[in-house]
Amino acid sequence: MMNRRTLTRSAATLALAACLPWPLAALAADEAPDALVKRLSADVLETVRSDKSIKAGDVNKIMVLVNKTILPHVNFRRMTAAAVGPAWRSATPEQQQRLQDEFKQLLVRTYSGALSEVSDQTIVVKPLRAAPGDTDVLVRTEIRGRGDPVQLDYRLEKTPGQGSGWKIYNLNVLGVWLVETYRTQFAQEINAKGIDGLIESLAARNKANAASGVAGAK
Amino acid sequence: MTTIARFSKGAARAAALVLGLALLGGCATGPNANPADPFEPYNRGMTTFNDNVDKAVLKPVATLYRDVTPQPVRTGAGNFFANLGDAWSFVNNLLQLRGREAYDSMVRLSVNSVLGLGGLLDIASEMGVERHRQDFGLTLGHWGVPTGPYLVLPLLGPSTVRDTAALSADLFVGDVVTYVSDVPWRNSLYVLRFVDKRASLLSATSVLEAAALDPYSFTRDAYLQLRAGPAVEGSDEEGGKLPEDY
Questions:
Q1: What span, in angstroms and rounded, lies between the C-alpha atoms of A91 and A201?
Q2: CA-closest candidate to residue B236, choices B245, B225, B223
Q3: DSSP B102-151
Q4: Whole-angstrom distance, CA of residue B43 vs CA of residue B153
Q5: Which of A129, A179, B47, B50 is the most buried (most CB within 10 A)?
Q6: Does B75 contact A201 at a Cβ distance shorter than 8 Å?
Q7: Across the interface, which of A88, A170, A180 has its CB nearest the CB of B246?
Q8: What is the mean pLDDT of chain A?
């Protein structure tokens, strides 16, 4: 009797000891990439759903939300550099900054336009297939609502250093990678009009979008 | 657009003609020629034509349809045609020896046809049985046929040489609607499907307009990725990887 109790107790202690360091370690380390994507998606969907002016199609309000919630977790420099391609290296730091800013504005508006369509959708994050030590992973999600589920995948990189977390650097919508899709268009502009030409085209596109409120407007 | 079937015969013929002309005339060459798009001048012309038809007819009709029909009706119509599509997906999954996907397609088709009131309700999705959309072009791709150059078809829009060749199988063998013997009914179904499809894409096209610098190459690059994508499985996990920096 005594023996059994001691055994149970020591087993319990052992189990507790085995468990205990884990949650602590998890707290100290970075949030897992799939957990991050899940949290961000849930946050944004929740806000979009509960905010009346967003529901009414106020794209500017969604842009503020996206800027605040999602952008801190996106590596825009890497995205822009890859979309611009080899010409990135020959661009001056000012040109690089402007490219980043204009591209960011374009994507945020597009993304916000798509978000304004959200109603009763839910996000399902699929199981991560990456190995524990990976620093570059693919997180697959699916938006389920009316009609066919919408595939939305994210590529994330682990930023060096403890606590700086994961950053999104490419996005796949319905099987199409975003950066790849912009690459040819950017190359076209650069071949025809140079880096400044590309910056101008992006700025013109953004201005036109802001004026007409195309994305999100019904 | 009376019937897609009749029209597509014409389309295939026109495409063959244009293809021949493009080949004769020497491919589009220039400093910016895209190797995946040797017919770019023709393709751009056809895209402009399609856009004009869309602006003048298809988009207004689809917008009207969206505004006058209640959402449940549109969902029902979409489900109905998607259910018919599952039959052809089943065949193509089978042809690609995708057992799991073929099984899912068959389950979807039978569950939705019987319990889902002939496909109006998508019960299978509620049950968690996924749709695995396939067509004959993807089947050809599965067995090693490359997509070939990008090709914009009249009214049907983006395609590739391979997918255009596969289109007759999709339209005359795989499309359940062609087996409807009553002509007015069949034509009505064609029109309804076309309008329903366009209506479901209304918000997508407005997003595209806002996102693209050059809508033509944006659509092309997205389409080519999409058509090459599902055929190359396994390389999935590496998809979208970018160089660290330039």
A1: 16
A2: B225
A3: HHHHHHHHHHHHHTTTTTTS-HHHHTTPPP----HHHHHHHTT----SEE
A4: 8
A5: A179
A6: no
A7: A88
A8: 80
Amino acid A1: pLDDT: 47
Beta strand extents in chain A (DSSP E only): 122-125, 136-144, 150-158, 166-173, 176-177
Q: What is the pLDDT of residues A148-159, one digit of tens each?
A: 777 888 999 988
- A-chain CB neighbours of B226 within 8 Å are 174-176
- What is the pLDDT confidence band of residue A27, given thresholds at 50, 70 and 90? very low
Q: Which two tokens stand for residue A70?
A: 């999602």
Q: Measured between beta carbons, which residues in chain A are less than 8 angstroms from residue B220?
A: 184
Q: How far is A112 from chain B (nearest CA, A)?
A: 10
Chain B CB contacts of A135 under 8 Å are none
Residues of A in contact with B81 (CB under 8 A): none
Residue A29 identity (one-letter amino acid):
A
**Partner-chain contact A153 B203, CB within 8 Å:** no
pTM here? 0.76
Q: Above 80 in pLDDT, residue A74?
A: yes
Please tell me the distance from the alpha carbon of residue B103 to that of residue B131, in angstroms, as a whole number.
Answer: 11
CA distance A12 to chain B (A): 39
Which residue in this structure is represented by tokens 């806002």? B210
Tokens representing B173 are 């063998």
Taking CA atoms, A203 is separated from A44, A102, A103, A199, in Å, by 27, 6, 9, 6
Q: Do A113 and B210 touch (CB under 8 A)?
A: yes
| Residues B159, B153 contacting (CB under 8 angstroms) | yes
Q: Is B240 left (phi over 0), alpha (psi -120 to 50) or beta?
A: left
Distances (CA, A) of B68 to A215, B65, B71, B189: 23, 5, 9, 18
For residue B10, the distance in angstroms to the closest alpha carbon of chain A comes to 31
Q: Cβ-count burial of A125 within 10 angstroms (0-12 exposed, 13-18 middle, 19+ buried)? A: buried
Complex ipTM tops 0.85: no
Cross-chain residue pair B214–A188, CB shorter than 8 Å:
yes
CA distance B227 to chain A (A): 9
Q: Is the pLDDT of residue A216 over 50?
A: no
pLDDT for B63-121, tens place per residue?
A: 999 999 998 999 899 999 999 999 999 999 999 999 999 999 999 999 999 998 989 99
